[in-house]
């Protein structure tokens, strides 16, 4: 059975699979950190400058619709092959859900609450950091959740341009007709994505309870 072959592959190549998993997690974490930071800042900016929201979200949507393998090919002439190109592509993909959710979360904060805070003498920075972001935290975390899961899943294609990660096992399994390697790499990616989704889902619920949403 295939599952028995997969278990045998895990046992025989446990150090290799562990190394690939560490590489995969590292790629995903770096890309997620960059996407989260850039997406949060851009989302805050367009929420405060409403007239810029349509073009920025439009551009983000365009990049989001480009097939991942095509985006990697477009970046290779500028960044070469390897981890840098993979991180850049994953970061670009991850920005969209962060921008969208940050924008939606901040714009969803009640105008009455903001006006009350402004009437009490709060500055724009204080309103953003103490009112808007805390109240929008649940929606923003939902964006982080989508972005992280997508980044972990999409990182599988990094092996096609010479980067590391569990995609190496999938690619090697495909090229050598070894279904155990292909399934083994895919299964571990699914586990990482599921674990991240459950963890961030719990955080999302807690944040929404605190913000009263």
Automatic annotation (TrEMBL):
Signal peptide: none annotated. Residues 21-200 form the ABC transmembrane type-1 domain. The chain crosses the membrane at residues 20-47, 59-82, 133-161, 181-200. Pfam families: BPD_transp_1 (PF00528). InterPro entries: ABC_transp_perm/SBD (IPR051204), MetI-like (IPR000515), MetI-like_sf (IPR035906). The keyword Ligase does not apply. GO terms for biological process: glycine betaine transport; transmembrane transport. Its main location: membrane. Keywords: Membrane, Transmembrane, Transmembrane helix, Transport. GO terms for cellular component: plasma membrane. Belongs to the binding-protein-dependent transport system permease family. This is ABC transporter permease. It comes from Schaedlerella arabinosiphila.
């Amino acid at each position: 059975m295939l599952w028995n072959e997969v278990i045998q592959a895990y046992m025989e190549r446990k150090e290799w699979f562990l190394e690939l998993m560490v590489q995969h997690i590292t790629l995903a974490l770096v890309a997620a950190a960059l996407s989260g930071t850039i997406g949060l800042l851009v989302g805050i900016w367009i929420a405060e400058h409403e007239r810029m929201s349509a073009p920025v979200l439009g551009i983000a949507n365009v990049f989001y619709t480009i097939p991942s393998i095509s985006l990697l090919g477009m970046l290779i002439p500028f960044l070469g092959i390897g981890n840098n190109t993979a991180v850049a592509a994953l970061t670009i993909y991850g920005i969209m859900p962060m921008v969208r959710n940050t924008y939606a979360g901040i714009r969803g904060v009640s105008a009455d609450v903001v006006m009350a805070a402004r009437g009490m003498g709060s500055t724009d920075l204080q309103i953003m950091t103490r009112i808007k972001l805390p109240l929008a935290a649940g929606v923003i975390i939902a964006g982080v959740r989508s972005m992280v899961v997508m980044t972990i899943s999409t990182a599988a294609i990094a092996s096609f341009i010479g980067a590391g990660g569990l995609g190496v096992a999938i690619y090697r399994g495909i090229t050598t007709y070894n279904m155990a390697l292909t399934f083994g790499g895919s299964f571990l990616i699914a586990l990482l994505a599921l674990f991240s989704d459950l963890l961030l889902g719990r955080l999302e619920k807690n944040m929404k309870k605190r913000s009263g949403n």
